[in-house]
Amino acid sequence: MRITGRSERYGRKLLNNIKAHFGKKSYQFITAEEFAEYSGIKEEVILQYLESTL
After folding, report:
1. pTM of this prediction?
2. How many CB atoms lie within 10 A of CB 23?
């Protein structure tokens, strides 16, 4: 299951958009906090999702 419910291709595009928004280079990672801020999903929900996928 994907947190956004969208395809992998959409996810890669979304990551690139988030990196551009925060002025990051293509090789840099984004944080859960940055994803939460950009997507509007609460950080706690994102962290719970990430922990459940381990």
Report:
1. 0.85
2. 7
